[in-house]
Amino acid sequence: MAGLNTLAVLNALQSHAMALGIFDRVNTHEPKAVPGSGITCAIWMSSIRPANLRSALDSTTARVEWLCRLYTSMLADPQDAIDPQMMMAADAVFTRLVADFSLGDTVSNIDLLGHVGDPLRSEAGYVNQDGKLMRVVTIYIPVVINDAWDQED
Questions:
Q1: pLDDT tens across 30-47, in order?
Q2: In 3D, which of 101, 141, 103 has the Cα closest to residue 122?
Q3: Is the overall model pTM greater than 0.85, yes or no?
Q4: Could you tell me the fold of the domain covering 6-150?
Q5: Backbone conformation region of residue 48, classed left if phi is above 0, alpha if psi is from -120 to 50, else beta
Q6: Phi, psi of 150 (to 5 degrees)
Q7: Residue-range domain boundaries for the chain
Q8: Under a CB-based contact definition with an 8 Å cutoff, are residues 124 and 148 in contact?
Q9: CB–CB of 149/61 below 8 Å?
Q10: Which pLDDT tens digit goes with each residue over 106-131?
Q11: Residue 125 carries which DSSP code?
Q12: Cis peptide before 84 (omega within 30 of 0)
């Protein structure tokens, strides 16, 4: 049984984000307090499920969705630059993930086009953190891991 290889996947996602050189910090947990100035990246696991279209008779392939949330203050100046900066940061994350969709052979693939569920995607929004409004872009990263769990009779 291979398992989910959780730490290796998390480390690969964090390394990709850090290598971009555009984030003030890259956390591997959902922040409990307001992130610092600039753009902060936080990565954590969202869901785990079998990948029914990829599983074989003796093992089950897993689909693990990771959240990569980019944060910046809504009070940043100039305000007209907030969304373009967030879009450029999200684009950089997408570019890096698409270029290495096996995370250095750590996983089968990132489900870029949604073959076993929702595809790689992002949604912009707002989060109220400690009474401060933050602009966020949440990137949903669906990771497919072959033969995660053995099936027995």
A1: 988 888 789 999 999 999
A2: 141
A3: yes
A4: STM4215-like (3.30.2000)
A5: beta
A6: -75, 145
A7: 6-150
A8: no
A9: no
A10: 999 999 999 999 999 999 999 998 89
A11: E
A12: no
